[in-house]
Structure formats: C-alpha cells, structure tokens
Amino acid sequence: MVIPRRDADFPRTLTVFVLVSCVFFVFQIGAVYWVTGTQEIETEAAETTPAETTPGGTPVPADDAVLLAGKAVFESTDAGCGNCHTLADAGATGTVGPNLDEAKPPQELVVMRVTNGKAAMPSFKGTLTERQIQDVATYVSTVAGTS
Q: Which fold has domain 63-143?
C-alpha cells in the first residue's frame, strides 16, 4: 500500500527556501559591514591633506611651536579630543575613543580620522582649519606613548 504525501514537491520547495535564506543572510552581513564603517572607503584617502614632507618624502620633524599649537587644539573645546581619548601628555583620560598612548597612530592616520571621522568619531573638517588638523596630527603622532 502506498501512502500519498501531502506535498509532492516538498524537496524542491525546501531547496528554494534554503537558497533564499542564504541570499538574505549574505545581504544582512553586507549591510552590517557597510553600516558599521569597517569597510575602508577609497575616497577617504583622496580627501585627506598629505602630511608635510621634505623633498625626499620623509615627514618634517615637529618643532616646539607646532607641538604647542597641536596641544592647544587637542585641549580646545572646539575639538574636545580629551573628552573621548586618553593621551598622557595632555592629561586626557577619555574612555570613549581609543587610547592614543597605546595606539601610537601615525600622522597620516590622525589627519584622515580628524578630517573625515569614522564610526563614533565625528569629522572636524568644518570645525578645524587644515592647519589645526595638521598641528593636532603632528602633536598626537609625536607625543603618543612617550609619557
């Protein structure tokens, strides 16, 4: 005796369901990746101002005036860097952003992050001048991890 099945096309419809579920899952993973900002945007690098260099292409050594100007920007209320970041030289003990003494970011990265922002850090492109951004980047990249 043969018992008839309720849905004769069951294996075929299961395959379609699994395929659609996989496509939806991949779409969600891509959306989360895009929204959280972990994907580097190529235009971000094109918008940044390159660090000052000598004719040989090496970074210009920081002088005391640039370091003092950078420290003033770091401590200013316009930038408010110390509210989020930790940097011993400036006496900053923020806990939201990365600890700059541990990260020791290069000048180019600081310029890129201050100019364009990323994740929780806002862009300061309209708030700070290009000179102020260069000064604070030089200051942070020079003093991070030295105190």
A: Cytochrome Bc1 Complex; Chain D, domain 2 (1.10.760)
